[in-house]
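INPUT
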Amino acid sequence: MTLFTSIPDDMYTSSLAAVSRKVSDSTVRRLSHYLRVLELHGAGQGTVSSRHLAEHTGTTAAQVRKDLSIFGSFGKRGQGYEATELAGRLRRIMGLGLGWRVVLLGAGRIGSALFEYTDFRARGFDIVAVVDTDPEKVGRRLNGVEIFPPERLSETVREHDIQLAIIAVPANAAQEMVDAVVAAGVRGILNFAPRKIRVPAGVAVQSVNMVMDLEALSFKLSRADADPGPAE
Amino acid sequence: MTLFTSIPDDMYTSSLAAVSRKVSDSTVRRLSHYLRVLELHGAGQGTVSSRHLAEHTGTTAAQVRKDLSIFGSFGKRGQGYEATELAGRLRRIMGLGLGWRVVLLGAGRIGSALFEYTDFRARGFDIVAVVDTDPEKVGRRLNGVEIFPPERLSETVREHDIQLAIIAVPANAAQEMVDAVVAAGVRGILNFAPRKIRVPAGVAVQSVNMVMDLEALSFKLSRADADPGPAE
DNA sequence: AGGTGTGAACACTTTCACAGCA
DNA sequence: TGCTGTGAAAGTGTTCACACCT
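OUTPUT
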């Protein structure tokens, strides 16, 4: 945490080089958003301005420039950013397009839905193995991918050189699964179980909790009279 | 936005009374988390301390107290908070247990998974109608709930007195659906389409974007060497 | 002792505003 | 003129530390 107290600062090298500054969560989410806009809207070529990106992502031009400037300065003053170059840089910054290999834990309702969710694959996250405890499911195939029992987890992770796990098992089984998968060598976890999960340092966790989002909505609605402002 | 510049302050009345202070998103998420812990862990009765809640939700005791104090002071010094009372208060604060009536837009992969996602129902969000454009799906039933065509949307919303909509349609159809559903009278939207959607003031939106979460994970992983700290 | 409620300090994020370059 | 890059200012959220109650 107190690494890099004094920073070599100003590395105008490749964006692949680890920028040592702490990048905030909100910045990362916005980078992802910018990339989506670039791929979709600024699809052709030419340049795109911070204002354009801001308008399509619901933020301000200054915010966009601040976010991008963290990783170096590669805009053309008076013009904006070269769209394809920026997209490429963002992908490199975020480690996309490397073909992450993913194991899906839990082939229940959410699990299967996620498995067939084409956006994951489209963005370079390949679910190459599925694990489920249900003996009825084990051995069956999901779109060509075999379902393994938990006992074969670490073997599977090693064989397929898997780096990421998606946890889609019931809440009470989540921590156990996380421990197993981390022991097997996985370094990142996308958690769909509504529980705080614990991982050793060096393992990244990102939690998705849809009930929490619905409840946040309920909260906003309950006090809609007091505060009329909408937001993303 | 500039309503309530001077606040009547210190309303020790019911927590139902609109507290005029702005409550941050992170606070709302934490409240939801506290409630889940109370229901699960402090299931019996007795009192629960801020430290206990903090430990199970990955925050600090001071943070818990700050969050709760926004809505009045109802802890017992030296004891903590009475678990069932606190749970009830949180539910009231967040507008839960009122039985929100929800329409699901899109009966595709994500849509159907969400429909069968029991946690929504368990927490008082009832999907009472489903809408899909596919003529093959229209008329069929999902677990007893009929699938309507978009033309019958506003009629359906009115008939069932629906307050919330879940958007689970393809990204390019999302804004159109949102407009329709808002016109029909819905005041809150849970959006699963990966697009910034626009709503008139007074309508609450909460977006869920799993690809963004995966990309955030990818980002963390890509720079795992620089920053070893794990988080929720 | 043990635990709440809260002002004040601190840390982090966003916005402003403008110099600098094409 | 148009738009980037960035210090400085403003705004928000979190942590500290302690008075106060049981």
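end of record. Chain A touches chain B through 77 residues (CB under 8 Å).
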